[in-house]
Amino acid sequence: MYQTASRPRADAYRRIGVETSMHTIDQHQIIVLLYEGLLQEIARARGALARQDVPAKCDAITRALRILQEGLMTGLDLVDGGEIAQNLNALYEYCVQQLVLANARNDDALLKEVYGLIEPVAQGWKAIKQPGQAAGA
C-alpha cells in the first residue's frame, strides 16, 4: 500500500527532473537524447523478443515509434531543411515501417536493420560540435 501511494510522487519527481533538464539543454543535446532513447528501445525490444516477452517487446517498439514520430520526425524542417531533412524524413519513415513489421512478425532481423540504420546517424549527430563549443568539451 505504501508503494502505491508513493509511486505517483516518484513519477511526478521524475517528470519535474526531466522537464527541468529539458529547459537547461540545447536542441543539439535533445536530438542526441532522442537518438540514444531510440537505440535503447530497439535494443530492449530485441532482448524482449529473444526472451519471448511479448508485452515488453510491444512496449519497447511502441516507445521507439513514438521517439521517431513525435520526436525526430516532427523536429525536421521539411520546407527549409533541404536535402538533409528530406533524406532524414525518408529514413525515419522507412524505420517506422520496419519497426511496425518487426512487431507484427516478431522479426529480430528487422529490429537489427533499424538499429544499424539509426546508429551511424546518431553517432554522426553526437559528433557534431555546436558553434563556439570547445573541441575538448
Describe this structure as you would to a colleague.
By secondary structure, the protein is mostly helical. The chain contains 5 helices and no strands. The chain has one domain: Four Helix Bundle (Hemerythrin (Met), subunit A) (Up-down Bundle), CATH 1.20.120.340. The radius of gyration is 17 Å and the shape is globular. It starts with a helix and ends in a 10-residue tail after the last helix.
Task: Give a quick set of tags describing it.
137 residues, mainly alpha, Four Helix Bundle (Hemerythrin (Met), subunit A), 82% helix, 0% strand
Order of helices and strands: HHHHH
Q: Which superfamily, in CATH terms, is the homologous superfamily? A: Flagellar protein FliS
DSSP strand count:
0
Beta-strand level of the residues, as a percent range? Answer: under 5%
Shape: globular
> What is the arithmetic mean of pLDDT?
85
The CATH architecture comes to Up-down Bundle
How many domains? The number is 1
CATH class descriptor name:
Mainly Alpha
